[in-house]
Each structure stands twice: as C-alpha cells, then as structure tokens.
Design brief:
With 94 residues, this protein is mostly helical. 46% of the residues lie in helices and 6% in strands. It contains 3 helices and 2 strands, in the order βαβαα.
Amino acid sequence: MGLTITAANQVIHLSRRWNPAVEDQCNDRAFRIGQTKPVTIHLPIAIFEPHAKVSFDKTLDELLSAKRALSREMLQSPTSGRDVESLFKRTTDG
C-alpha cells in the first residue's frame, strides 16, 4: 500500500519485494516535501538459528542489496574526464 504521509517517520517492510525499486519508492514516500522528522526504515528478517545460513529472508536481503549496488554502479554518471576516456576505450577496444 502506498501512502504519502509527511507526519510518518517509521517505514516497516512486512513483505519484501524482488524488485528493490519498489521498496525504494515506498521509502521515498516518507521523505516527501514537508517531512521534518528523521525517518527510520525497518526490515524484519526471520532467522531460525539452527539454519541461519540458509534463511530465505537473509538470502533475499543479500540479493536485494546486490541488485541495488549493481544498479548504482551501472547508472552512475562519469565523475571526471578520465572516466569518460576509460569508458570509451573499453567500448571501442581502442
């Protein structure tokens, strides 16, 4: 459910999504114009101690973190002229 409530300062993701952009959009709704309080985002993760390494919630959290990092790296704009030259050389074999 998506609501824009500038008085809210707590976001709780009870059900995680495979697409991190959906979660990010939900988080951004709490940071809308007019927000004056710090916002806290909660991601409950269920872990059964005897099988902590194979927890679905933990694995999904790691996957979403990796997807976020990948999208940041792919969509990041060049920060210097050397970045542009390096990108050009890698794409043109020159």
